[in-house]
What does this fold into?
Amino acid sequence: MQYDPIKRSLGKVFNKSPLSRKLFYHLLDILLLRAWHIKKALREYTIGQKADVHVLDAGSGFGQYVFFLGRKNPQWHILGLDVKEEQIEDCNNFFSSIGHKNARFQVADLTRIDFDHSFDLVLCVDVMEHIEEDVLVLKNYHQALKNGGMLLISTPSDQGGSDVHHEHHDHTGAKGFIDEHVRDGYGIDELDRKLRAAGFSDTDIRYQYGVPGKISWKLSMKFPILMLNTTKVFFVLLPFYYLLVFPFCLLLNYLDVRMTHPTGTGLIAKAWK
It folds into this structure.
């Protein structure tokens, strides 16, 4: 099961105008539980911050977090990096069209970035599980941060975060729901150890996607994506599906963000230089 074909299809639909792109961001913010956790952490980070903050979004994807931070903090300077050229081009075009001059995007391989004490905050959402040389990338983040700067990571845990432990082999022989990941996920101790090996002096790592979050993810993301991969006809049925499950997913997301989880299929980590 691969996300990229679905991402490309969604990109074509929502890139037709700046208004549809903004609508797409709002839908991601509502449906994706990770966005609830990340935005909560970003709001906490923003409290008491100076006006002149430099942010690196490492693996910026569609640019939704750059949009969130840039709109809330117009004096901040935000750089988004991604390995996919088409997404970088789309993001630069969109942000230029809406007049957001405090954000820019460029193509980059995170294993090769070489910033030196340049950023107050590095954001890394659903990226580390795709990178084989993860400690090297964490070292690059550490080097990119100013002293006292913070790294914020969202990534699957080893408690089934990639859903590989809950799926049988399909008829093609593919294993797991997400076959773009190089690892199933991280344990808290493992991620803490790698962050400290990269030079970070203090960490705070917690589970996300507890019981409420796991149910919400299956209803709001897993099942629709499986159906879209089966037939594109489901694009027509998708709005009616979400009308049914949407209120329940909102409640589950709210509970997941408010609760402390003894285990979960995702991790949210903060680390300070």
